[in-house]
Write a structure and sequence with these properties.
heterodimer, A: alpha/beta, Rossmann fold, four-stranded antiparallel sheet, B: mainly alpha, disordered C terminus
Chain lengths: 449, 275
């Protein structure tokens, strides 16, 4: 029977230096999924890579060997020398734990900024890539789709995403602790990204007086400026704006810090020491950490914002518990489905289903023919039983034969759909998840193989 | 009667302080209102005692260091009570009320050494001198409390280490601007107080400057606040440095007030001896 394994590292296990390395690797065009055909043990694989996390989700028959293979792929992908011991930064989740972890990730419960919405999009992209590389089959296909619907459930049934838990909210709250009211403050956006835009929206809602956008591509800057009723400034001129702006939200893809100690220091006198607040959500960081040492200047990078979020933990605890309950529920459901995928339970339920039909039909027939003698009844029973037995003989032999193969899950799943065995099957039909087409396509592709 | 009222006042300040210290941990508006009211009751008893004392002595009760500190404590509490209505910064009470208790207790412990001969205190000049200096010092003491709050909050935000006070303390800009207004209104008062003092000295002792320790320390204090005011207005000093300077200024006030008379051996009384 195949196992689901999740191997990866995130903001909890790897320090920012390692993650900075990751972010560089994540910009490379090569997707490690192309390695899958070379992996003997690994059957299906999904590769998720964000600024703060890298995860391999895969299925294999031998857990130990699968992990070993995937670790080599990971090491090669990041491009770290062998001397750096990756193991201490890695976590490995197996089977039900892996499922649970994935659901947590999808629902943004495992995110650095719990409730931040990007992770689901990133996971969907990871899934699309995997579909493109044809590395997902029955198990991961179903698991990923399930994770999307779990995330949706968590989002609608709890307020994890909206209440005081997003990076933008944290940033705004901090700004209010520094500046008090934000009505007369101005915000400079450097670079663009979903998280930065979210922060900008929050600041706009707080009624900031002025907003300015600096971006490497002017078109993008103008696009954002139009959205936030902001002005634009040339990217190489934004340092001058530090003299007048109060809040700087920075999220460029630059690999070198853009704002250095001296850049800020030299402009503080002209600012008349009015406080300056940097929100640096870029990885690698855009603002030199030493800038925080300047009087009246406050620099918060993504790790620091985590600290703020941590501070709100208590009020979030309740919501997290509700979310966790949802996740546990869904994990158990998925696990049940997984267990049903091996040959024996499938065969048992096929037989069960046939037997149920036979009994029901017999009961109806016997009640309409009350004059039948016991021996006649017995003959009819034997007749129906042998029809079913003979009819199911070939399919069952087929399933037993396939049970030896690593791809058994495909056939078991197919059988279950064919006979409409799975409990969850009807539910799945009733609530089609986003990307259903993709799911069908994958299924066809894998079936063709 | 008078001393009974002072004991009641001190007890009220003590209870109010306890209330405000609890308020530090539990955000209950009711607690703040009760504590504030108790401080108000204390200030009323305190004021009544001072009126009795003034009536009894026939002059402002400021001729001993003990009486001066007692009078100052009252000015300070009243200044706070009024400013609180205007500022609506509840947590301020937690940082201010302990000082009132400290002032009251130390006033009762201090020796009742004569500082100024009572005939001087009857003069209108001296009343203006004492009133403006005390009000200035009360405002500077508030600036000190706010400065401490600022430094605590600044530390939370700068070190990214959020203690329980982080939630309770207001924004940095708010604290800084309160300190700013306290200093800016205190400084002219102090200047006026010093000028009336020098003017009076010139009239009585025929010399505005007598190298009295208290005079020297007062001038040092004035210079500290002058630097603070100048830097704030001209350079835009604010925040941490300004808060530290206001703490330094407050230490100078304490030194002037208590130290000069206790440690450096009587100040204005030296003058009195000269007379």
């Amino acid at each position: 029977m195949s196992h689901i394994v999740l191997l990866g590292m995130n903001h909890n296990t790897a320090p920012v230096e390692i993650r900075e390395q990751l972010a560089v690797a994540c910009r490379k065009e090569v997707n490690p999924l192309h390695m899958l055909p070379h992996l003997e043990q690994v059957d299906e694989m999904v590769f998720l890579s964000t600024c703060n996390r890298v995860e391999f989700l895969f299925t294999c028959d031998s857990i130990a060997q699968g992990i070993r293979e995937v670790k080599t792929v990971l090491g090669a992908h990041i491009g770290l020398p062998d001397s750096v011991p990756l193991d201490s930064y890695l976590y490995v989740h197996k089977d039900i734990e892996a499922v649970k972890h994935l659901f947590m990730v999808a629902s943004s419960l495992d995110s650095m900024i719990v409730g931040e919405p990007q992770i689901l999009g990133q996971l969907k992209k990871a899934y699309r890539d995997a579909v493109e590389y044809r590395t997902v089959k029955v198990v991961l296909n179903r698991l990923l789709h399930k994770s999307f619907s779990v995330a949706k459930r968590v989002r609608t049934e709890t307020c994890i995403g909206s209440c005081a838990v997003s990076v933008s909210y944290a940033a705004v709250e901090l700004a209010r602790k520094i500046f008090g009211g934000l009505m007369d403050k101005s915000v400079l956006l450097i670079g663009a990204g979903e998280m930065a835009e979210l922060a900008a929206e929050h600041f706009l809602r707080q009624g900031v007086r002025r907003m300015m956008v600096a971006n490497r591509t002017l078109e993008r800057a103008m696009e954002l400026a139009a959205r936030f009723k902001a002005e634009t400034v040339a990217f190489d001129r934004f340092l001058e704006e530090l003299k007048v702006m109060d809040i700087v939200v920075s999220s460029t893809g630059s690999e070198e810090p853009l704002i250095l100690y001296q850049d800020v220091r030299s402009r503080m006198r002209e600012r008349r020491n009015r406080p300056l607040f940097f929100i640096d959500i870029a990885v690698p960081r855009d603002v030199d950490p030493r800038v925080n040492e300047i009087d009246n200047v406050y620099v918060y990078d993504i790790d620091d914002l985590q600290g703020v979020i941590e501070h709100n933990r208590e009020e979030r605890q309740n919501q997290a518990q509700i979310a966790e309950h949802i996740i546990n529920e869904e994990t158990i459901k998925f696990n049940n489905w997984m267990n049903s995928l091996s040959a024996v339970p499938t065969i048992v339920s096929v037989r069960q289903k046939a037997e149920n039909i036979r009994r029901n039909e017999l009961r109806k027939t016997f009640s309409q023919l009350p004059h039948l003698s016991d021996s006649e009844k017995e003959a009819i029973e034997i007749l129906t039983a042998s029809i079913i037995k003979k009819f199911l003989h070939d399919p069952i032999v087929f399933l037993k034969k396939k049970a030896q193969r690593s791809a058994q899950a495909i056939y078991m799943d197919f059988t279950q759909q064919l006979f409409n065995l799975a409990e969850g099957a009807s539910e799945e039909d009733a609530a089609p998840v986003e990307g259903e087409d993709a799911q069908d396509q994958t299924f066809l592709k894998t079936a063709k193989k | 009667m008078e001393s009974l009222f002072l004991v009641i006042a001190t007890l009220c300040y003590l209870i109010g302080t306890v209330g405000y210290l609890v308020y530090l941990f539990r955000d209950l508006e009711q607690l703040h209102r009760i504590s504030w009211s108790i401080l108000l009751v204390g200030a009323l008893f305190h004021g009544a005692a001072l009126v009795m004392r003034t009536a009894g002595a026939g002059h402002l009760p400021a001729d001993t260091i003990q009486e001066s500190l007692c009078l100052f404590a009252w000015v300070f509490v009243v200044t706070y009570l009024i400013l609180q209505i205007w500022l609506q910064l509840r947590i301020l009470g937690s940082f201010v009320s302990p000082l009132a208790v400290v002032f009251m207790l130390s006033s009762s412990l201090l020796p009742s050494q004569i500082m100024l001969k009572s005939e001087f205190i009857k003069s209108g000049w001296v009343i203006v001198h004492v009133a403006s200096i005390f009000l200035a010092n009360a405002l500077f003491t508030l600036a000190f409390s706010v400065g401490v709050m600022y430094l605590l909050q600044e530390r939370h935000i700068k070190k990214k280490n959020f203690g329980f006070l982080y939630e309770r303390l207001p924004s940095l800009e708010r604290l800084d601007s309160i300190a700013h207004y306290c200093i800016m209104s205190g400084f002219p008062l102090m200047t006026a107080g010093l000028i009336t003092g020098f003017a009076y000295a010139a009239v009585v002792w025929h010399s505005p400057w007598n190298w009295d320790p208290k005079e020297i320390l007062s001038l040092v204090t004035w210079i500290i606040y002058a630097v603070l005011v100048h830097e704030r207005l001209a350079v835009g000093w604010r925040g941490r440095r300004a808060a530290w300077l206001s703490i330094l200024g407050f230490s100078a006030i304490i030194l002037t007030f208590v130290g000069a008379s206790l440690l450096l051996g009587g100040h204005h009384s030296v003058l009195a001896g000269k007379m």
